[in-house]
Amino acid sequence: MSEGGHPDVILCPGGPMLLRGDHVVQDADGVEHHTTRPVSAVCRCGKSSIQPWCDGTHKVLPPKLRP
User: Fold this and answer.
1) Is 2 exposed, middle or buried (0-12, 13-18, 19+ CB in 10 A)?
2) Is residue 16 left, alpha or beta, with left meaning phi > 0 and alpha meaning psi from -120 to 50?
3) Which position among 20, 34, 41, 56 has the lowest Cβ density within 10 Å, counted as fewest Cβ atoms?
4) Cβ 19 vs Cβ 42: under 8 Å
């Protein structure tokens, strides 16, 4: 839990993983990305055009293909 009682990681059903605070996310190529926003959305469907970040593509996928 971060300060204020909010969880650091939230898995959104059928959507991204939300990260609160400072984190390092490693993409499929092993490149590390540091979060720069208070809350960052990480892609879990694998279809985002801005990997490792979520671009909302999961919203147009059939439910069986969503995370």
Assistant:
1) exposed
2) beta
3) 34
4) yes
- Tell me the pTM: 0.85
Tokens of 35: 């979060």
Residue spans of the domains in the chain: they are: 9-57
**For residues 38 and 35, what is the distance between their CA atoms, to the nearest angstrom?**
8
pLDDT digits (tens, 9 = 90+) for 23-60: 999 999 999 999 999 999 999 999 999 999 999 999 99
CA distance 64 to 38: 30
Distance CA 45, CA 67 (A): 5
